[in-house]
């Protein structure tokens, strides 16, 4: 990584772990602007189910990366990686500290590592390779991926198949392509990963779902559908929205809605934890000590966490 790129704090962790509260506590101590790296908060009007910071916090602390597109429009990690560097530059020019906050790992990685632009791949060979990969067991697929790319760290069938595809069709490993792309990244990340014991996180998720439903999640979805947004629109495909759409369409009983959202949110949080564990472990092997991955126990209060983060930030930054 290029040392000239500014070191940037990146606060990550699964949904309901407390990222927003920690960011708010940090903002009381230093002039910062939050840049949301959340694939759901980009959608306008979808506030309750995406757990956007409330209007009071957003009035006190500038937030970027939210309310960017209509729920019917698709937004990608690539678009985020193209737009967010401009936000980083503007925040720093205003004398503020940018704080990346989010749970969408692909957004964070696209911003930190730059965009990997693969060369054109032969469509016939690609299709044959995908057919072959689809017939393999997951363990066999992972062994092939590791054989073709020594930096492969797991991450499921889809990632393993992608590693194999890139290596065989381009003659270079995916990790090498990503290493070359990393030189174009907009920042040097300083990762702060918030974690909670599994049972406590499960309870927080249940409490959050209850709060969202009480705040009017179903009414938010009903109003969006009434505006003409399609039930299968990108913005309504997230956890909480998908189940609410199904309930309003009669495919899910109203009394089952709460438990369905809780189950889906817990599964999503587990995927987030797995992603950060695998991807940031790989990152830590290629970045300098200052660009570290620091895991914090979020059972401590946000004020305590904010003080600890700032203390270590001053050391890492200087």
Mean pLDDT: 90
Question: Could you give the order of the helices and strands?
Answer: EHEHEHEHHHHHEHHHHEH
* Count of the domains: 2
Architecture of the largest domain, CATH level 2? 3-Layer(aba) Sandwich
Low-confidence spans: pLDDT under 50, at least 5 residues? none
DSSP E strands, number: 6
Topology-level CATH name of the largest domain: Rossmann fold
Strand order of the largest sheet: 3-2-4-1-5-6
In helices, the fraction of residues equals 40-55%
Rg, Å, rounded: 20 Å
Beta-strand portion reads 5-15%
The total count of helices amounts to 13
**What can be said about the biggest beta sheet?**
6 strands, parallel
The CATH H-level superfamily of the largest domain is P-loop containing nucleotide triphosphate hydrolases
CATH class of the largest domain: Alpha Beta
- This entry's quaternary arrangement is single chain
Overall structural class, as computed from helix and strand content, comes to: alpha/beta
* Through-space gap between termini: 18 Å
**Overall geometric form:** globular
């Amino acid at each position: 990584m290029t040392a000239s790129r500014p070191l940037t704090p990146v606060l990550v962790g699964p949904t309901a772990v407390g990222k927003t509260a920690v960011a708010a506590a940090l903002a009381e101590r230093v002039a910062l602007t939050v840049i949301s790296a959340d694939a759901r908060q980009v959608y306008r009007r979808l506030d309750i189910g995406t757990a956007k910071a409330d209007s009071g916090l957003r009035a006190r602390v500038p937030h970027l990366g939210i309310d960017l597109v209509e729920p019917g429009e698709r937004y990608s990690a690539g678009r985020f990686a193209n737009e967010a560097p401009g936000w980083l530059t503007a925040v720093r020019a205003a004398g503020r500290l940018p704080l990346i906050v989010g749970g969408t790992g692909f957004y964070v990685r696209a911003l930190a590592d730059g965009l990997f632009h693969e060369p054109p791949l032969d469509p016939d060979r690609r299709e044959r390779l995908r057919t072959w990969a689809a017939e393999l067991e997951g363990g066999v697929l992972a062994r092939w991926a590791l054989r073709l790319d020594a930096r492969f760290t797991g991450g499921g069938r889809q990632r393993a198949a992608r590693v194999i595809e890139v290596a065989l069709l381009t003659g270079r490993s995916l990790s090498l392509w990503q290493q070359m792309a990393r030189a174009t990244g907009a920042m040097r990340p300083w990762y702060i990963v918030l974690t909670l014991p599994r049972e406590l996180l499960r309870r927080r998720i249940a409490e959050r779902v209850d709060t969202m439903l009480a705040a009017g999640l179903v009414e938010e979805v009903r109003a969006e559908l009434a505006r003409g947004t399609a039930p299968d629109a990108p913005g309504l495909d997230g956890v909480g929205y998908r189940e609410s759409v199904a309930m309003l369409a009669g495919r899910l009983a109203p009394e089952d809605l709460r438990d369905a959202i809780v189950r889906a949110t817990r599964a999503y949080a587990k995927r987030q934890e797995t992603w950060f564990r695998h991807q940031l472990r790989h990152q830590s092997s290629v970045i300098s000590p200052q660009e570290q991955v620091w895991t914090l126990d979020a059972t401590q209060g946000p004020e305590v966490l904010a003080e600890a983060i700032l203390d270590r930030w001053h050391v890492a930054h200087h």
